[in-house]
Amino acid sequence: MVSFKVKWLDLFLGLIGIALLIGVYILSESFPEPHEAQLGASVFPRIVSALLAVVGIFIALQSLKKKSNAELHIENAKMVFFTFFILLLYGLLVKKAGFLILTPVFIAVLLNIMKYSTIIINLLTSILTTAGIYLVFKIFLSVPLPEGILGF
Amino acid sequence: MVQYLFNGFANLISSGSIFALFIGVFLGIIIGALPGLTATMGIALLIPFTYGMNPAFALSLMIGIFAGGIYGGSISAILLKTPGTPAAGATVLDGYPLAQKGQAGKALAISTIASALGGLIGALILTFLAPQIARIAVLFGPPEYVLLGAYGLTMISYVAGKSMAKGIFMGLLGLLISTIGIDPISGFPRFTFGQLNLLSGLSLLPVLIGLFAAAQAFEGVEKHNEIQVKQVKITKIGISGHEFIQILPHIIKSAFIGTFVGAVPGTGTDIAAFLSYGEAKRSSKHPEEFGTGRIEGVAAPESGNNACVNGAMIPMFTLGIPGEAATAVMLGGLMLLGLQPGPLLFKENPQVIYTVFASTITSNLLILVLGLIGARFFAKVLQLPMKLITTLIFVLAIIGSYAMRNNVFDVGVTIIAGFLGYILVKADYPVPPVLLGLILGPLVESNLGRTIIISEGNLLVFFTRPLCWLFWTLILYTIISNILKSRKTVKASSQEAKE
């Protein structure tokens, strides 16, 4: 399990708010000047980012002032972070490799790490699930699924 | 109007939307029955696959999931003592004790009948009230739309959860994200960093799927080793005529409470259910028996929460402002279908809107039929392995975000939004305000731009139109009532701490 104090996250997001404000102001410098009686492209983002920074600082200060010890717990954190990692890999590679190749691998790995069943059952489940999804979405609903190297 | 409604029913059947509605209600009941999965998540996952469908067909599917999902939550509330959705929280109080007494079948029948009748009354109110509101809303000009958007943004205070400041922070974040892409007035690309993918802004759909579906799946991975509770055995499903007469007044009363609560933006099905339960208990001759398995204690919240589903659609369809998470997601779906939610929808697409009304009415009849005939089947669904469902949600989230534009960039957005959403919710940063900001940001900014052009820069225009004053009143009322409410909460919690 991973735990960390919520106030550090509040402080971090307060800083993000300030960083966004600075970033928006610098980037919007290059926006064209509006004609008379026209809302410039920079006005709305600047107002919103200024408010965001103010609220972010308010949350951070309030959290520090309260001396709150509230903690954020993530049980099975390693598994959650690993899932995020393999999901990213799956998402980024699925177009190139193809839905039919990568999906059974992703499902089998995820079922294995969650200890769903034996390796054989997990493999069989992943293949049958992929086939089911392919049938429903690609064949029946004509939803475009990533074809990848197989070409279908 | 009645003629339009008849045409709506005819279109529901001829366009095959009734089939979509059936599938929606069926899937909704399953999603709602499974603890941890919500109707909102179901709609979010479904939207990408509705792209390109006939709007009436797609909307019927979404309405079916919404209504079925809220009803489905009662099945696990009665059989497992675990509400499938927050809306069924109040149903646990008497539903589970009734099941423990060996009357699980009766409890399920009551929840089905109450959900269907309550939902039906709510749907009829929606059908006859919404066009009247839309008739007024059609008079809106750009200044009114700016204030309408601002009023919609004050809804953040209702969906903010534990911390108002954190809710506002997330809403502002949504607003800021909505400024990415081409500026609606000058046409200048903003914050795109030369990325073609960002020219039309950060797509709503991948963010929506990430925040409401992938985030929930991460939660599923975290809690994958939680043991599933053993369910109560189902007995004969049905109730006597005498019992029906006993619960009928509570069903009707709760339906009106639920519809009203739903129509007030920012409330929700859970609040409607608890208010209905509270009223049933207050007006009962035996309030002391509530919590021990009273049939009215099952009927009232179930009627209230399904009526609320229809009430919540009133501000969404007529004004284009979502009041809570599920309608916010549906609003996103409407926009992706190419429909502009709000009063013009009634003027430009009467056929679609009246087919939708026909769907809301029919969805309740389907709940009645499916609920009574399929109760034993839906109870079996509760034994489905959550690990496999979690994995399926991930895969559907990925293919859903990909299907829209065949774009890996959108897939990346979904995964990152999902992971951030999962972490932020744990630290009490609510995610529905992000969606409110994303949806309402362009509405406010583009209409503000138009107002400035039309009024030649005179901002007093916001104070000279009668409908603007209506919105100023609503905005001020929402802000003041929320400040008073949060002060009360702070006072109560500091008093509790002292004790």
Automatic annotation (TrEMBL), chain A:
Any single Pfam family the record assigns to this protein: TctB
Entry superkingdom: Bacteria
Signal sequence range: none
Start and end residues of each DUF1468 domain: 18-146
Keyword line: Membrane, Transmembrane, Transmembrane helix
Sequence intervals crossing the membrane: 7-27, 47-64, 76-93, 99-116, 123-143
Name of the protein: DUF1468 domain-containing protein
Organism: uncultured spirochete
Lineage: Bacteria, Pseudomonadati, Spirochaetota, Spirochaetia, Spirochaetales
TrEMBL record, chain B:
Taxonomic superkingdom: Bacteria
Domain DUF112: 18-436
Listed transmembrane segments: 12-37, 57-80, 107-130, 136-160, 167-186, 198-218, 325-346, 352-372, 384-402, 408-425, 434-453, 459-480
Protein name according to UniProt: DUF112 domain-containing protein
Source taxonomy: Bacteria, Pseudomonadati, Spirochaetota, Spirochaetia, Spirochaetales
Keywords, comma-separated and alphabetical: Membrane, Transmembrane, Transmembrane helix
InterPro entries: DUF112_TM (IPR002823)
